[in-house]
What we know:
The chain is α+β, with helices and mostly antiparallel strands. Helices cover 54% and strands 18% of the residues.
Amino acid sequence: MNVLWYYVIFIVAIYILAIIFKDRLKIDVYGPILMRRTQKMRGWIDFIANLCPRFWRWSMNIGIPLAILGMIFMVYTTIMSLIYLFQAPVAPAALLLPGVDIPGSPVFIPIVSGMIALVLLMVVHEFGHGILARVDGVGIKSIGVILATILPGAFVELDEEDVEKAKKSTKLRIYAAGSIFNIALAVIAFITVLILSSSFIPYAFQEDGIKITSVTPGGPSEGILKEGMIVSSINGFTINNRTNYLDVMVNKTKPGDKLTYVTNMGTYTITSTGQPNNASISYPGTRSETRLVVKPEVSRVYGEILPWFLYNLADVGYWVFALNLMVGLFNLLPIKPLDGGIIFEEILGYKLPERFAGKKMPRKIAGRKIPEKFVNGITSSVSIVLIGVLATLILYSVVPGIISMF
């Protein structure tokens, strides 16, 4: 069954259970939004915040300009993605649901590694907000999880009165902390993966064919090839790794060809089609990776468990890096209620020097706080434009792939 159906069934079951047991489980239901608040974990946040308040404060002083640069980068990337969408038939967007393989999507997230990475992403993001809040004496009312239709998340609910009284620099540190913590975790994960993939993995493993990691619903291989199959040859061409495999798909076959796969489970034949993003290249409707086996000499010394543990650690680390970087940067878009939108609004609210008042802006605004109505208007307009761009990207690059799965 299509993995998307499992998500649908799981989410429907959660909603039904949440509504039935909302009093017992202390769940708040706001239409399609489910929230569960708790007072737990606040002690941990206080403990971490008090370990080195000066470090957190000064690191986030550096984080604020980094967040602004990230915001500028994401606005540029989003606009360029829209332009690119109409210039080339390549999907610039992807649905970040672990285990869901959408035809034409540039990203496929394995379910186990993806789930671990998503949990770490949410925890680190919200703890970032909470830690910087406590560093500057802003209270935390509750911590919780949220499900908005199909989008899971976590939150740290701050004391509104404390936030209102806080300095703008304090607010900016708190708002920027979530994404900066995500990006910091991405850097740590990247270094870990780099060390493992450049040292231990080449030493411990050798290539031995390719392994099918997923079969795309509605693709040429559906019902024929299976996830986990080890492919040793295609149409008589030996497949030792992904390089051999791509060479066969690009240079030795064409769309419409019969492809004969020799696998560890038998021999199978499929008829390829053109890739969703490039109709001139053979597309079997599978994703694959180079199959690795532990070298005999390594196995004799370390056994099988340790090498595979470190390999899986590198795999999880890669997705921790990728998802934290992607989501951390995405959250910096100047769209409310994203953190980037709140940061953008706070920046607009700063006092303007005399030389920036200009002819189009009332002189009386210079040196004073910009009227809230003016700030809200700009923030709302920018949010609407960017939401429109994102909706277009999703509509034209993700939705067609989802529809083709059913």
